[in-house]
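Predict the 3D structure for this chain.
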Amino acid sequence: MNPVQLALRVLRHDSRTRTSAILTALGVMVATALVLILTALPHAAQARTERSSWQYGHPGVSDTGGVELASQDYVRGEFIARLDVSGATGGGNAPEYPAPGEVLLSPALAQKAGELPDNALADRFPERIAGTIDPQQLRYPEQLVAVVGHPKGALDEATAIAHGASLVEVEASSEDWLLQPMAWFGLFVLAAPSLVLVASASRLTAARRERRMASLQMAGATPSQVVSTVAAETGLAAVAGTVAGLLFIWPLRYLIAMIPWGNGTWFLSDITPSASAMLGVAIGVPALVVASSVLGTRRAVRSPLSAATQQQRSRPKAWRLLIIAVVAGLFVFGMTKYDEGAGFLVLVVPIAAIIWSFSLIGPWITATIGRLFSKLWRRPSVLLAGRRLLSDPKGAYRSTSGMVLAVFIGSIALTALPAMTASAKSLGSTDKAGVILADVPGSQAPELRQRLDAELAQQGVQATAAGYEQVSIEGPGGAVTNGLLIDCQAAREVTSYHPSCAGPPGIHTPIDVPKSDLTVTPAILASNGEPPATPVPQGTPVSHEPNLQTVIIDRSAVPALAGSTQTTLSVLPPTEADRAKVRTAMARVAPGADIESIESRNVAGQVMTGDLHRITVIGLSIASVLAAGSAAITAAGSVIDRRRTLGALVAAGTQSKVLVRALHTEAALPALVAAGMATAAGAGVSLGLLNVMGQSTTLTLSILAPIVLGLLVAALAAAASGLMLRKIIAEPLADE
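Done. Predicted structure below.
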């Protein structure tokens, strides 16, 4: 009889081995689906980028005279990617660009423009709509995109702005940059509980399998025959689970595609794993499962008599405590080096060492608690639980080891996210809340400002546009200070600074600067050389105002500033209802300019932190399910493996409720130990990272989420052990 036939016969006649195989197949199915989804995400990010690369435009004038200027607008909490084109035709992966005076809209933007009042959105674009953009040319289905056509040559002068990469491209690339490491990181984090789930299922009848292997070997079977039988038994379950996982991925894609990332959801084609990934998983996952089961047979093959008699395993030694001091010192050393300018790798290595240390410290803590229970017991159930934890601490801790990595990473994220959220909300401190602004070429600023004022009046907005330039001020000693060149009253209206505007135009500074021989130079310079510094007229008043955070130079004090390549036009809408009208006026007057506000600047940071919050919650939820499943299976398997011992205790008169309490204690305690240890370590690491990066370290109640995860795993493990005990007590002991 070959190994496959023997494995099939065992599965057919042994219900417990069959149950273990079914659970192993389910675990492999979950692990296969997770691996395929997570490996598909980097491909999905790349597909997004390639599909929407045309939206970034080509700053400057092409050989054919065509101009493409990418910019970003904002409407009711959503970004609009806008591309103004002049003399360009599109094609390739881009749509055919509209003719002058026409606009091409994405389906979502066309719908929104029809729903909102014209002066809130539709008036930002020409009236003639050339059509809608194919969804397969968008980053995500809900993306708001507009392509506006202009006469040839209309945008040539606007290219004087040093566009570089537009905000659309910067934010898109930051999303892709974040998603790819997050996907691989998620694969690393969730692989551990997935593999533990598979291992727990395959070990459901570990003791029974070891005794069977030992019996076969002592009956004359060779070690290779024994190992082949185990490999066939596990391989059948692994192959079945892998096939089920490959099939399960197709309906699972619909759920994954609905999870937002970076302002939008996904196309179904983005989440489809590649053929090479599916082939690699189809071969690799069963191979890993079979290899793991074969490695687990070493004890029975090497010493069949010990396996048959269930000889007690060695206990962890106290030297493992030294690991805590070693990894903590390594992490502190890494923080010190990072603070001195070393790369992030000096922090990655200590964090990896901390994760590795859990596997050494956890069993020792479990054994120590078991020893305390055995010495300080007041109830028989506590004594039984303590003896079990003391006799096999590695096995008791193994059931929850899968959730340790997820809890550790989750604690880091949940500790750091409040600081990231606060940092995102602090953006845009120069401009006053509510102000809407756009950067325009300095040479066009006076004309555009006049046109903007006229457009605002036509829209019925009682506000005027202000303009300012970022400048640097240099004194006779060579000291350089940054500041803003702006009318004093306008500074009070559109910036967060409030200089004193009493007296003649002058310089308002929070620090001491010389009273004479000052020069002003634009901070944003043209690429063809630096302009000469413009001297400040002698006798210009310089007032010291400590309440300011930057230098304010009244525009009237330096009327002839040379070389300014960029001016910021700012408008403070008088009412909330006027905000959309102001954006519409700016879009009509300055095509190709990014129209921003503090609110829109903060949205990008809020979207990123929202994505991280969502990913953390999803990751912890998946880890909870996997860890709870593996803990429950391990607890049930522990009861099955000790059926003889538990049956003997019942036969000797031990009450079943005493055994249930003992099993609850020994199953729940390792989960609580693992969750508490990983939460404390994760919070400590996160606080250290935030401190070395100069971020705030506010803790919130969300840090307790991993503890809740530990309680859930503990409760399920305890419930599974109790149910399995009642089941085997009801069976005749002679069946064993």
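The first helix runs from residue 3 to 13.
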